[in-house]
Amino acid sequence: MRSSKALLYIVLSAVFFTLPLYTGVYLLNVMDMILIYMALALSWDMLLRSGQISFGMAGLFGVGGYTAVLLHLNAGLNPILSIVLGAVAAGVLAWLIGEAVLQLRGMYFAIVTLALAEIFRVIVRNLPDLTGGPEGTVLPSAIFAGNSTKTYWLTLCVALVSVIASEIFRHTRIHFALTSIRNDEIVAKSSGIDVFKYLVFIFMITSAIQGLTGGAYAHIYGFVSPEGSFSVDFTLLPIAMALLGGMHSTWGPVVGAVLLGVASEFLKLQIPYGHLLIYGIIIVITVLFFPQGIVGTLGQKLQRNR
Amino acid sequence: MSPLGKLKQSNYQVAMISLIFIVVLGFWKPHVLVEGLQRGCLYAVIALPMALILGIVGIINLAHGEYMMLGGYLAYCLNVYTGMDPLAAVVPALIAFFLIGMASYRAIIKHVLGAPELNQLLLTFGLAMVLEQAANLIWTSRPIKLPLKYVSSSATIGSFTFGTYEFIYVGAAIVVLVGLQLFLKRTGMGQAALAVGQNPRGAKLVGIHVDRTYLLVFSLSIALIGAIGAIFMTRHSIFPLVGAPFTMKSFCLIAMAGIGNLAGILWCSLILGLGENFVLSFRGYAGWADILFFALIVLVIIVRSRQRQVK
User: Do residues A279 and A235 make contact, with C-beta atoms less than 8 angstroms apart?
Assistant: First the structure.
């Protein structure tokens, strides 16, 4: 059983890694977007497993992007290294914020993260010497000189990192700690779990993934700007994807990202100015009628039929 | 000394310090004082309905600012199609948003009342996005402002000129605060609402219709915020994203005052309003005023969590 599962993973990764061999540039660009959002959706879901909700993806995503671009431009660092350092910056920032506000959880934490994108946008706009101010900063050339095969591999790596992190979190003792914190904090505390430490840790890790994604995105498109890098898209879409696919799992956000990612390509053409409306409606309907999402609901059905 | 005496003494000290602060500020930067008062009252009047929903229905409504934005657009549309003055549009906005509040409660909010906090946050976040993007589709993201003459009225004392129209916010804040206090303390319905806010099960046991109370409080709050949107749009330009910062600032104020403390919101709003205008008054640093509320909320959370640990 175990070996057949491993074989499945190997075949799947082989298919994904060799995808550029038999598809065109357009499909690769679509895949880039899907993988970027997949990483964000997964990182959001990982934090959700602890019962905390973050609306701050766009903020940490932008921090990663700005750090990566500025380090590459001003310090002349290798782009890949600068992307990793962007992740580190987002992680450190999240650690500081987490230390300060994770003592009070639930809605306090949620609102603080909701404000993050706005706060970072204000900061970036007010430091024009460093960040280029409201105009943003443009790189002389995109990463790998815009080679779509290599950028695809980059986003694939980012998505793989998040999938692997998510799987590690699901299959180690961290999973039990987070689940018990979500279900009943007092019970978790009395069975010896350091709730605060775990929450800060998971917030830091998920934020680092968001920073990594942001760095990759910024290098692929070759620019950062206050409006673009902290756009609400990077909060709204991943939440809609993770919810639609199903919370508290690895496959839920992955399925949701693929479904909505493909759908969004179509929607952008149909209603260019209001396609975000659809994601809002998806969030409302999913929470109201099937909070388990597609994967969760299907899983329940299958178990019942057995 | 008894704890009560200690409390009174510290209150007295706080009052003295703030009085000295206000007098100094009044001589040094008078416009900060006046505009801070006006802005603070605007924050208060926006935060009060949100506090009411949070205190009694127990839901944090992340779509709060979006309802205000819609109120502004309603007043705008009434003005464009019927020529009605936006200030007169407060009355139709109250009625329309009471109905909108009822519809939102029945269709959406009611179903997550028993659900985990997580689902409530997600749902109202989704609702905020829907309202924001719907407004974006209908009215586009272009800021809209009506050319009204009376909003630029001003008064001069000595060499100091300030806008007088914005005192409407001060009036609105006092009316809403006093009205809500009277409603909650003096009327049967208000007392029932307070009881439900304290303990829904207990309220149900003594025969209060909990669901109807929730419906009433939610619709009333939405009606208020819609009407405030109409007042807001007379002075400020409106666009689909205009409400979002107010949602966060309102929550910041509620967290500062403590949930259920309506009068405290007014004082906290004045602190935020004065603070923001103080930062705004320094040329070159005005852009930083928008992160003041964030610093405040982080500070409040740190202080509150320390307090909780001590207990």
Answer: no
Contact B118 A48 (CB under 8 A): yes
**Cβ-nearest to B121 among A53, A104, A279:** A53
Return d(Cα B213, Cα B194) in angstroms, integer: 10
Alpha helices in chain B (DSSP H): 3-28, 30-52, 64-82, 90-107, 117-139, 167-186, 188-198, 200-205, 210-235, 244-257, 262-280, 292-310
Determine the Cα angle at B128 with ends B304 and B297, to 5°: 20
List, as ranges, residues 211-250 from B with C-beta within 8 Å of A.
244-245, 248
Rg (Cα) of chain B, in Å, rounded? 20
What is d(CA A163, CA A157) in angstroms, rounded to the nearest whole number?
10
Half-sphere exposure in the Cβ direction for B285 (13 Å, CA): 9
C-alpha B194/C-alpha B265 separation (Å) is: 17
ipTM: 0.88
B286 near A CB under 8 A: no
| Per-residue confidence in pLDDT tens, chain A, 306 aa | 567 777 887 888 788 777 777 777 888 888 889 999 999 999 999 999 888 889 989 999 999 999 999 999 888 888 899 999 999 999 999 999 999 888 887 788 888 898 888 899 889 988 888 888 788 888 887 777 778 888 889 999 999 999 999 988 888 888 888 888 888 888 888 888 888 898 999 999 999 999 999 999 999 988 889 888 898 889 989 999 999 988 888 888 999 999 998 888 888 888 777 788 888 999 999 988 888 888 888 888 888 776
